[in-house]
Please model this.
Amino acid sequence: MSEERPRPPAGPVVIAYDGSELAKIGIEEAGRLLSAGRDALVVCVWQPFDVGFVPIDDEPFDAAQAQAVRAAAEQTAAGGASLAAEVGFQSESLAIESAPTWKGIVKVAEERDASVIVLGSHGRKGFATVLAGSVAGAVAAHSRRTVLIAHGPAS
Model:
């Protein structure tokens, strides 16, 4: 008699996207490893003052103005969704306000019943990790979802 395995979540791939090169690598890696045509939700997490993402254009904005930060985050998320579409996902974008960043990613993944969470790792080590923390590590530690962490090329 075989034991029945729990079914994996059927929801979208949730891709955390902050506009960095490593986040782009995360999208590319997900495109290589996951089935084409899957639904994907590209999420950019923002917060006033401590923006937490790289805007996709060079337009300056006031980080103290929540509306300006939200608009830049929405534009960044949309840019990530375009990249996800290029690698084969049926993608949509979402900008959310959350602090710390990892909590927002985990919350969206739970709410959307994500099948997997994709992140690029910035690879901080040592004292930098203690100071800045690791979003990828915190998501992996706190989520019940499968987490795909893509790393950049070895230096």
In short: DSSP finds five helices and five strands in the chain. The chain has a mean pLDDT of 85.
